[in-house]
């Protein structure tokens, strides 16, 4: 019996038991951290997918609104066309989407085509103001610079290009913009 007690005592080494508990605690902690990381990545992926889906839906609505505005404008129903546009850009669920900036940029192009330069300038400014990212802001600035160039509004063109170059130094690498 004393030999069995001695073997049991050797098997129950307190240092080994402490190391085993530390290994188990470290494993549990590692599993918890890995689980949290997987959960965070999953939520981030879900959020990105939902954002992409929402952007696509609003882009479809933009296309429908612009078709309606074109038809109403062609029919001479300018007040209805204006209401359609305003409803689209002011709808809370459209805020923060790239479609709103694009809607303003397209409006600016329509205003410019009708010779309403002040309204076009305002719409380009609105496009820049509601842009959700630097790419959209740069696109708005580029469009505004092209508009000023076509209208030979050189002072405003210089100011627009200065802002554009500050926002995107490589913008003038585009031959079309460099030619302005």
> What amount of the residues lies in strands?
under 5%
Q: Give the low-confidence spans.
A: none
Radius of gyration: 31 Å
Rounded mean pLDDT score: 90
- Provide the succession of SSEs: HHHHHHHH
Protein described:
With 180 residues, the protein is an all-alpha fold. The chain is built from eight helices and no strands. It is elongated, with a radius of gyration of 31 Å.
Set out the fold topology:
Layout: H1 2-11, H2 14-74, H3 78-90, H4 98-113, H5 117-130, H6 134-150, H7 154-167, H8 175-178
Helix pairs in contact: 2-3, 2-4, 4-5, 4-6, 5-6, 6-7
Summary tags:
single chain, 180 residues, mainly alpha, 8 helices, elongated
Task: Give a brief rundown of this model.
It contains eight helices and no strands.
């Amino acid at each position: 019996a004393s030999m069995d007690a001695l073997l049991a005592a050797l098997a129950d080494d307190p240092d080994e038991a402490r190391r085993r508990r530390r290994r188990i605690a470290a494993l549990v902690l590692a599993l918890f951290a890995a689980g949290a990381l997987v959960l965070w990545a999953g939520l981030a992926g879900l959020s990105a997918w939902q954002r992409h889906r929402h952007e696509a839906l609003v882009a479809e609505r933009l296309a429908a609104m612009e078709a309606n505005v074109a038809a109403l404008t062609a029919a001479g129903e300018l007040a209805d066309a204006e209401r359609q546009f305003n409803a689209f850009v002011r709808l809370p669920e459209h805020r923060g989407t790239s479609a709103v900036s694009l809607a303003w940029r397209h409006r600016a192009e329509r205003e410019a085509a009708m010779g309403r330069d002040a309204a076009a300038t305002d719409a380009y400014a609105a496009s820049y103001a509601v842009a959700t990212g630097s790419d959209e802001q740069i696109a708005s600035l580029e469009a505004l610079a092209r508009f000023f160039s076509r209208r030979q509004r050189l002072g405003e063109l210089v100011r627009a290009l200065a802002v554009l170059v500050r926002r995107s130094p490589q913008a003038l690498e585009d031959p079309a913009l460099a030619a302005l």
